[in-house]
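Lecture 7 notes: from sequence to structure.

We start with a single chain of 150 residues. Read the sequence below before looking at the structure.
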Amino acid sequence: MAQHSIFTSTITPDEVNASQIVDGQMAHHLGIEITEIGMDHMVARMPVDHRTIQRIGILHGGASLALAETVGSIAASYCVDRDRFFIVGQEINANHLRPVRNGEGYVYANATPVHLGRTSQVWDIRISNEEGKMVCISRFTVAVLEKPEA
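Now the structure, written as tokens:
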């Protein structure tokens, strides 16, 4: 049986990065980029460097949440008719499981849907380090809103 994509259009990481990771926005400042789009998931990465660490030299929890919300928001936005609807974040939470030190490469956030409803979506986002060890687990809820008539 053929698997159908959760996304409403065929997209590539390059297309998403060109249209969503815009100069001047937080994701661009933090070095976040989409690296993979599967049938039922989206992956982004973020460097662990001077932009994303806290004062003691480890990945900042807020940077992990920014990564989770970025990949979750982008993935959610491609699960709706983008001409008629848009999404906004409602709630995000996270458990930080292990530190990543400055200069240890990238962290990777894999977003998969838990619920794709008509008016809301819930996403599971798991962030791992270069060795594939879990760094953070997050749950992200978005509202699906109808665009106003032009």
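The domain at 13-146 is CATH 3.10.129.10 (Thiol Ester Dehydrase; Chain A). Keep this in mind for problem set 3.
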